[in-house]
Every structure is written in structure tokens, then in C-alpha cells.
Amino acid sequence: MNSYDLIIVGAGASGIFAAITVKENCFNCSVLVIEKTSKALGKVKISGGGRCNVTHDPKKSLLLPEIYPRGSKEMRSPFSQFSFQDTVDWFASHGVKLKTESDGRIFPVTDSSQTIIDCFLNLCKNYEIKLQYSEEIINIKQEFNTFTLTSNQNNIYRSKFLILALGSINSTKTQAILNAIQVVYKPAIPSLFSFNIPSSPFEGLEGLSFDNVEICISQTKHKNNGPMIITHWGISGPAVLKLSAFAAIELHELQYEYEVKLNFLPEYSEAEIQKYLADKKQTEAKQLITNTKIHSLPTRLVKRIIELSSIESNQKWADLKKSEMYSLVQHLTQFKLRCSGKTTYKEEFVTAGGVDLKLVNMKTMECKTIPNLYFIGEMINVDGITGGFNFQNAWTTGFTSGVDIATKLNDNIT
Ligand SMILES: Cc1cc2nc3c(=O)[nH]c(=O)nc-3n(C[C@H](O)[C@H](O)[C@H](O)COP(=O)(O)OP(=O)(O)OC[C@H]3O[C@@H](n4cnc5c(N)ncnc54)[C@H](O)[C@@H]3O)c2cc1C
Fold first, then answer.
1. Which of the ends of the chain has fewer CB neighbours closer than 10 A, N or C?
2. What is the position in ligand 1's atom list of the atom closest to the CA of 12?
3. Left (φ > 0), alpha (ψ -120 to 50) or beta: where does 19 sit?
4. In CATH, what number is assigned to the domain containing residue 173?
5. Which of 344, 370, 385 is the last residue of a domain?
6. Is the CB of 349 under 6 A from ligand 1?
7. Could you report the per-residue pLDDT of 292-312, keeping only the tens digit for each?
């Protein structure tokens, strides 16, 4: 009774997409998806602030090394089978209208993740994919080309093919399953987080945003340019999140105690800024420094930088000392901040780490050491920056594994 052609453990984005792909390519096969929680697609529901950022605009120049801090090289092969454009086409052909926002993120036109969930669950129903909820798989064995799965309710399930789509490897239970079948993995660590700055010099400036700040993590080689926002806890925005992803491993090693340097004027060299301020000393000699404009920087930030450079509020440009000028330039171009801890980015969060890609045939997502076992989605050592790239990993690897299994099943069935 409990035997299937394919069992998928995990009814998240990747598991459900793989199930649908298998059935679309091999309708007669039997597929069971086992999920430990009481519903499918829990993360899809809360994703993108409830709007689900499904992928990214394929018309933008999307270079995998700039998108996936881990796994970009290996992902070239699955992407050649299911790309950003394929995701857009897939949703169109399954009746989901999408829209592209100016920053390239793609959402359903309804602005509701429920649209994506409804689409997937209707397909599961139409294709007779069996969904088993509230049951956790705790042990896996392969004997005589058959997988035997044991659940926490002591039920036994058997299948010829098995896809593990367990999400982040952050629990000891998931680690125990992988250890038992001798699968090498890196335990999950956070990626995509904002930087915490206790006793921030920016207190009172919360909400100020910048189009282009260069952020450099002092103890590492990591730096990044882009939009940044001052928050109640520290700094966030696309430039910070991308940096958190690329520096995830180093920041974890530093136990999230580190220094960043901000350059508020990365478009100019230090010499150009010095000249710009020296010109002001001449042309605005009788003006108060505190009332000055510095390029297009917000005046509230400029006032704070002037205070922090120990320049008195009644000081005029003509009286600016060399040391004060130096301090001003340093604060504008190398503003030092002590960071401690991290804040989860609630719109999108992902973990780095996962099944070692050396163990995975990236053309199919099949395990190289255990035939007919597949790993997909966040549980492999691939993670992306914010913008729909993590779901893209789930669709791409779900599709790739699904096609391979369907092909093998068709070969056997027919
Ligand atoms: C708040 C938030 C917002 C996000 N927003 C976006 C976004 O807008 N765009 C984007 O691209 N990415 C987003 N992400 C990331 C994205 O959700 C993940 O990359 C994606 O869900 C991974 O899919 P998955 O199927 O690999 O894993 P998951 O979605 O985590 O699914 C794994 C499933 O396996 C189940 N499971 C685990 N172990 C067992 C077991 N032993 N037995 C049975 N079931 C088990 C889990 O309960 C879970 O349902 C967001 C993440 C978060 C947390």
C-alpha cells in the first residue's frame, strides 16, 4: 500500500515543483510527497513580504557568480535546462500572470503568494500527487534498489526513486538522516541579514536611504556598492544584504563581531573630495559649515558627520583647520562602524551550507554515491542573494531532477 514510484520528502517550493514536473513528464507514475508540518509551501506563503518574489527579470544581465555566492559554477548545468526565462514561461503556461518591478524582481500580478500556492496545489490535485502532511521522515535506507523510509509515526514507505527536498540543514534531525546515509554536507549558517550596530552614531537618522554607498568589511576582502538604508538596529538595504550573503562564512567565523567602513561618496576619489571641500573653504568662507550641502548627501547625515568630525556648530568654512578637514573627509569616505550580531531580513531569508555539490551530479541532481536519490532546493550548498534567486534555485533543481526521474520511469514503464 505504501509503495510509490517516487517519494519526495518536503512539500516546500522545490519538492512540489519536482512532483509536478515528474507528473507532467510521466503521468502514470505514482508520486507521494511527505511533509512534516500541517501544510505545503509554508515558506512560499510568507515569502517576499507575502507577495512571493518568484524569480528575476531574465532581460537583466544576470551573471550567476554575482547571484549565487555558493554554487554559481555548478548551477550552470541545471540552469541550461531551466532558466529564469523558463520560470516566466512556466507560470504563463500554467495560468499565473506575473509582473516585473523596476528593480527586476518578479511577482504574481495579484501581489499575493496564495496565487502561487493555489496554482501548485491545483496541479497536485489534477495530477493525483498524494500529499501526506504532519508526518516526519526520521530514517532512510536503500536495500535492493528500493528506498525504505520510516516516519515519526512508525509508518514505513517504500519507493524506487527518492527526492530529498528538506530545506535548510539546520536541525540535528535532518543532519542525522544525512549522516546515516553518509552524505557529506555543511551545516546551515545564516545568509541575507542586516548589520546590527549597537550604540549607532546614526541614532535619530533611521529611514535615511542612499542610492549608492560603498560598504567594506574591514577584517575581510568583502566590499559592495549599492543602495543602503539606516534602520533602528543598524544598516540594511540591497548593498548590505548582498554583502551579508557573500561574506556569510567569514562573518559566521567572526561570530558577527566586525567593523565596516562606509564610503558615502564612492563616485569620487579622496583627492576630488578634498578639492571639493577646499573650494568651499574659498567660495563659502563666511558660511556656517553645518548649513553646507555636500554633493547630494542628505543634509541630516551631513550635519551628523560634521558633529562627529568635532566641528563646532557655529564654525565657518574660513576657520576650518587642516585636522578638521581631514576628519571630515575620513567620515565621508571611511566611516567606521562597529557591528555586533545580525537581524534577519524578513522579506527574504536563506541559509548558506548544504549537501556538498561534489556529491551531486548537477546535470540531474542525483547523488553520485546512492543511485536514484536526488537532492534539490535549499538543502544543497547553493544560496542566492535577494531578488527571487532562491526560489529560482528551487524551480531549477526541482525541474532538473523531475525530468530525469520521469525519463527513467518512462524507460522502465514503457
Ligand atoms: C521569510 C522568507 C521570505 C522569503 N522570500 C523569498 C522570496 O521572495 N524569493 C525567493 O526567491 N526566496 C525567498 N525566500 C527563500 C525561499 O523561501 C527558499 O529558498 C525556498 O523556500 C527553499 O525551498 P525548499 O523547497 O528547498 O525548502 P523549504 O521551502 O524550506 O521546504 C522544505 C520542506 O521540507 C519539510 N521537511 C523538512 N524535513 C522534513 C522531514 N524530515 N520530513 C518531512 N518533511 C520535512 C519542511 O517542513 C519544509 O516544508 C524566503 C525565505 C523566507 C524564510
1. N
2. 31
3. alpha
4. 3.50.50.60
5. 344
6. yes
7. 899 999 999 999 999 999 999
Q: State how far the alpha carbon of 392 is from the alpha carbons of 13, 39, 65, 269, 283, in Å.
A: 10, 21, 15, 38, 54
Top mutation candidate among 140, 155, 191, 348 for ligand 1, by most atoms within 8 Å of CB: 348
CA 350: distance to chain centroid? 5
**What does the pLDDT read at residue 414?**
41
Residue 53: predicted pLDDT: 97
Q: What is the pLDDT of residue 345?
A: 75
- Measure the CA–CA gap between 393 and 349, rounded to whole angstroms: 14
- Ranges of the chain whose pLDDT falls below 50: 414
* Encoded amino acid at 131, one letter: L
Q: State residue 269's pLDDT score.
A: 95
Ligand 1: centre distance to CA 11 (Å)? 9
Instruction: Please give the distance, rounded to the nearest whole angstrom, from the Cα atom of residue 115 to the centre of ligand 1.
Output: 17
Residue 1: what pLDDT? 62
337 shares its domain with 395: no
Q: Give yes or no: residues 32 and 168 share one domain.
A: yes
Ligand 1 centroid from CA 351, angstroms: 10
Is the pTM for the entire model greater than 0.85? Answer: yes
Using the mean position of ligand 1's atoms as its centre, give its distance from the Cα of residue 278 in Å.
54
